[in-house]
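Morning F.,

Quick status update on the modeling queue. The single chain you submitted on Monday has been processed. Sequence for confirmation:
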Amino acid sequence: MARYRGSVCKLCRREGEKLFLKGERCLTPKCALERRPYAPGMHGRQWRYRRKPSKYGLQLREKQKARRIYGILERQFRRYFREAERRKGLAGSNLLQILESRLDNVIYRLGFAQSRAQARQLVRHGHFDVNGRRTNVPSFLVKPGDEITVRERSRKLTYFKDLMKGMEHVTVPDWMSFDVRTMTGRILRLPSREEIDVPLNEQLIVEYYSR
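Structure tokens below.
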């Protein structure tokens, strides 16, 4: 399966803002954007002096930023956008709803991982059940009423034992609920745009694909 294997810190530097792709590290002085606040590459320092980006440039950057936040390649992202257009309502809000419904994102939102990349790895290793069935597909789309539980065998691992000690203070979004005792999350409903705290202007993405 194709996936990005380069430095994720370069992605933040390219966009010129923190995308929090490395979890808590992004909040420390070790963050690459703190140490080198310019685009990667030999000409990265010169980019800040270039002329104002075009309308197309702004649309492209917003689309790329969305892909990088959620860790999705172009073909799959385009497929999500086509699905968002078919649904009722605003295409941009529908797109963000679909991205938030991915299993790896839900695992991240529930506090089982510090980043979506880490959540994706945990899902691939088969540590979670969805409605009682082992699910190891990060792109699996959850629905209202679905329950996500840490598998019985996985709870014996040191990672989840240590994680459980601090999960009492984890705050999950209002569109989900979480039971610390059973390590189970439940999808109450799909999130509204106001509940999705990602620094994106989805209208620019819609304009990009509507050219």
